Amino acid sequence: MALIGFHSLMDAALPTLWDEDYLKKIELEDGTTFDVIAREAQNALTALNAEILTMPGYSQLFSVQDDPEVEYRVGVGNAFEVATEYSAPDPTRGKTTGHMLPIKPYDMALGWTMMSLRKARRAKLEADIAQMVVAGRALYQKALLTRFFTSTANSVGSTSSDVPFADGGSADANYVPPESPGGETFLYTHEHFLDTSDTGITSNSLDNTALSVAVEHLEEHGYQGEYMAIVSRADIGSWAAVDGFKPPTWRGVNYQQSAVERAQFGDISQYFGAVETDYGMVNLWATPRVPTMNYGVVPLGLSELERPLRMRIAPRIGFGINLVPGNWINAPALMVVAYAEFGVGVGNRVGGVCVDHGASTWAAPTIS
C-alpha cells in the first residue's frame, strides 16, 4: 500500500520485533584485539614512568640508582699543619659509613575473556588502563613519602639495614654528620625527627617558630637558599594564617600596589604559598597523602647525589612499571601483567627534616 506525505519523527520508531537494547550493544562494540589493548596499556605506563620522574613535589625528593648500597662521609675532618722544612706532613684519611637500599617486586594484572574483549566498549577498556595508571602512581608516591617520614630502620638482607634520616644514633651509632661548610660540628645524637618535646614545636599548632626550627636543622649543614615543606592538604588554611605566609602571585592578575606581599614561583601550580622564616623562604607543597599536623622540609636545588631519598631499581628490569611479556593464561582468557621492581631508601641522612605537632614522641604518620 502506498503512503503519501512527509516522514516525521513518528516514523523513527523501531519495528516491533527489533530489540533496542541488543542493537545498542552491537553499536557500541569496539572490536578491540588483545595486541591493541596491550600496546595501549604499555603506552600509558611509559607515560606514567616519565611522569614519576617529574612529579611536582616528589621529583625533588629522590634520585635513581641500581647499586644496592649508599656510602657517605662522617665525622669531623682533619686540619692542615704548619709546614716545616725537614719533616713531611702526617697522612690523613676520611671516614665513611653506609647502608643498604631496599627493593621489592610489584605486579598488577588486567584480564578479559577473548569474547568480552572483542565486545567491550572503548570507555570500559580505557577505564581498565586508567585504573592501572592511578594505582601505579599511588605506589610510587606512597613509597617515597613513607620512607621520608619513617624514623625506623628496615632490614635489608640478613645483617644490613635501610636507615632513616639522622635519628640520634638509634639506627647507626657510627653515623656522625660531617662538619658543615661553616664549621659547625655534630654528635651522633643529632636528630632530624622533631616532635612537641623539642624546643619550639608547639602541640597541635602550626607556626613560624616551629618551621624556623626545622629549616635551621638544614641550614646548619650548609643548605642555604630556598626550601620546600611537604604539608598536609588538610592544613592549607592553617598555613595561610602562619606569620610570614606569602600567597602566590597568580598569572593574569594586576595587583597594582597591593599591601600584601606575594611569593613568585616559576610554576605556581606546584605551591600554594610560601613562608618567610629566620633561615630562608620555604615554599609550601600540599598533598592529601600526609596527615594533619605533620610536615617535612627539604632544601631545593640539590644535585641528584644530595637529594634526601634514593630509589633503587633492578638493573635487568629498569625504571618504572612495564608490561611483562608472556602467555599468562591461555585463551579464551587473556591477561596483561604490569611489573615493577624498586625500593626507596634514604640517600642523604641530613637532607630532610620531619615535624610532628601531634605527639611528644615521634611516630611515623600514616601515608594514605
Strand proportion, as a percent range, falls in 15-25%
Helical content (DSSP H or I, runs of 4+):
10-25%
**Number of helical segments with 4 or more residues:** 6
List unreliable stretches of 5+ residues.
Answer: 5-9
Largest sheet: 7 strands, mixed
- Determine the N-to-C terminus distance: 71 Å
Record field, number of beta strands:
16
Topology order in helix (H) and strand (E) letters: HHEEEEHHEEEHEHEEEEEEEE
Shape: globular
What structural class do you assign from the helix and strand content? alpha+beta
Strand order in the largest sheet: 7-16-12-8-11-10-9
Q: Supply Rg.
A: 28 Å
Could you report the average pLDDT, rounded to the nearest whole number?
Answer: 86
